[in-house]
Amino acid sequence: MKPITAICVILLFMWATPCLATTLQPCGSFKTVSGKVLIQRQQNTITAATGERLYPRDQIQSGKDGSASIVLQDNTIICVGPDSTMNMEKFIFNPSMYEYSLATRMIKGTFLFLSGIIAKIAPDNVKIQTPDGTIAVRGTRFLVEVL
């Protein structure tokens, strides 16, 4: 009975390790934070602060007086205005393996986007979703307001 239990534990650990590795890789950090800005990470709510890391699947929510700028690992800059909500859906920046992907969902509010390395190297792998459509990025900057 013990060998079966050990095998089950090893298989569970092998299955869980890749999942943990992807969720623990930060995609960037907050460069500035003003007013109330919250991060929803899984079931936790964290108050954003300068230097706080951002992870894939995090949701950023700014209050009526809140704003923040985020710098991603590829030097993409995303500024979130007051009363805004954005999900960081996916972020992969692995130059040694030629893996690049950036996907965000802008739910409401105002956002300034300044593209970084991913948009220059693999522009088709950058997706900015809004309730009305998807913005294709071609090494650019833009301001969007989602009502």
From TrEMBL:
Position of the signal peptide: 1-21
Keyword flag Signal: yes
InterPro entries membership: FecR
Keyword match Acetylation: no
Keywords recorded for this protein, A-Z: Signal
Gene3D superfamilies, per the entry: 2.60.120.1440
Domain FecR protein: 58-144
Cited PANTHER family: BLL6125 PROTEIN, LIPL45-RELATED LIPOPROTEIN-RELATED
Full protein name: FecR family protein
Originating species: Desulfocicer vacuolatum DSM 3385
Organism phylogeny: Bacteria, Pseudomonadati, Thermodesulfobacteriota, Desulfobacteria, Desulfobacterales
